[in-house]
Structure formats: C-alpha cells, structure tokens
Amino acid sequence: TEYETILVERRGRVGWITLNRPQALNALNSQLAQEVTAAAVAFDADHGIGAIVVTGSEKAFAAGADIKEMESMSAADMRATDHFGAWDDFAAVRTPVIAAVSGFALGGGCELAMMCDIILAADTAKFGQPEINLGVIPGMGGTQRLIRAVGYYKAAELILSGRMMGAEEAERAGLVSRVVPASDLLTEATTLADTIASKGLPSLYAAKAALDAAMETPLADGLAHEKQAFAALFDTADQKEGMSAFREKRSPDFTNR
Ligand code: HXC
To answer: Catalysed reaction(s) (predicted)?
Structure first.
C-alpha cells in the first residue's frame, strides 16, 4: 500500500509506523488518521507480527490534531464526519502497541500515545493537552485516558491550564513507563518490541484484552474477565509449549496457536 503521511516498515516480527508530516510537526489530519489506522489494522491481521511501534520525529511525536484542518468546521461537520472516528479502529487493535515518543506529544498527539499500550519517552519528550488554549477540549480520549493514567487532579491541572510536562514528570505521574536518552529511543523501542513480539500471540492478545478490561470495568467484572481468559489459554498449544519448555529448561518455541 502507498502511504503519504506515514512510513511503514516490517522488521522481524515488529510493525513500525513512523508519522511523517515534518512540515506540520506530524499534526494528525484525517489522511494521517486513516493511514495510521489502516497500517495498524493490516499489521494486526498479520500473524507474523507480534508488536507494533508508533513513533514520530526527533522534534515531534505529534503536535496535535491538525488545527488548520479543523478551524472552519462546524459542530454539525464534526458530528457528521465523526472527525476522529478512524482512531477508534486504531485503539481497538489486538496487537500490543508501543508509542516511542520524542519531542512534542500534544493534544491529539498525547491522546494517540495514550491509545497505545506502552509509552516509552525520550528525555526530550513533552506531553500536554493544550486544547484549552484553542477554545476547545481534548477530543480523542484525553479527558478520559489521562485521568486513568495520572489520576484526576494531575489530569485536571494539565487539561485546564494547557501546560506541557516534560518526560521525567510524565514518568513520575505514571503516563510514561520509562525515560531514555533521546539518542537511545529507537534502540530501546526495538529491544522492547522484539521482546514482546517473541511471545505467543494468544497470550499477548489475552493480556492486552485483560488490561483493556481493567480500564473499563469495575474490579469484580475485571477479575471475572481475567479468570475466563486465563482458563481459555489452557486450550492453546503455546501454553503447553511454554510450560514444557520451562520444565525442560529450554526456551519456548511458540507457534502462536
Ligand atoms: C497544524 C501545526 C500544528 C497543529 C504545529 N503545526 N502544530 N499545524 N496543526 N496541531 C505547524 C505550524 O503551523 C508550523 O507550520 C509548523 O507546524 C511548525 O510549527 P511551529 O509552531 O513553527 O514550531 P515551534 O515554534 O517549534 O512550536 C512547536 C509547538 C507549536 C509548541 C508544538 O507548533 C504548537 O503550539 N502547536 C500546536 C499545539 C497544539 O495546540 N496542539 C493541540 C491541537 S488541538 P507553518 O506552515 O505555519 O510554519 C488537538 C485536539 C485534539 O489536538 C482533538 C480534539 C479537538
């Protein structure tokens, strides 16, 4: 497939998606939303892929939804086109997704990172929800996912003031799993993605689905989900292989079944 706003590459069992609108700091316009989603959905359908990495440039992961594209829209336009709807399919992929963030992750850029399962940050990363400065509010999940990541009070401060936070603060707050020197970001993302992609797909999918359930359900429902999902994995070849490999003191050879 030919993409114009992203670069897509398969490296081993990892699918790489690099946002590539440098002239606009990777602002997320509708074409980019469709392309990122199409690429992620294609990787998701490919059983040769066990992890996806989304990254941007050194200067910007993404500086937000494309303000110039939205500026003249009416409320009716927004609703009729479901302007950010393509992203729902991105958030729904079963494959684990890592956001490797360097530079600005603002507005929709921060929200895109939060649709991923893991956020790795360069020490240059800056996160924020500056929509309030534009007379709007986050529209791709920011008010909901940021609270779940950092708690109500920190999310409220960021969303109401529009202030940016650096990588260290974002790590302390629980948004970012790890901060690495900017020059190491892609190497660290590669190592992490390769590690994840070496596991069996049934257990990766089950783990991600259970993590998602934790975001969306009361504790008792989440625990019930986990119990069912855990039991179901005992019908997979990978469970037998993983456990016999342990007993035989060797590395497992997962077949993703
Ligand atoms: C469209 C953008 C853009 C954006 C940057 N650009 N962000 N274009 N949409 N979100 C463009 C600029 O217009 C400029 O192009 C080029 O990228 C480089 O940006 P500069 O501003 O010249 O760079 P710099 O001075 O380094 O400042 C970087 C920055 C600033 C601090 C990140 O660009 C900025 O504040 N951007 C907007 C951040 C923002 O408000 N994001 C939230 C968007 S709303 P030209 O051709 O003009 O030179 C959002 C809503 C989510 O995400 C969904 C609900 C509505």
So the answer is: a 4-saturated-(3S)-3-hydroxyacyl-CoA = a (3E)-enoyl-CoA + H2O; a (3S)-3-hydroxyacyl-CoA = a (2E)-enoyl-CoA + H2O
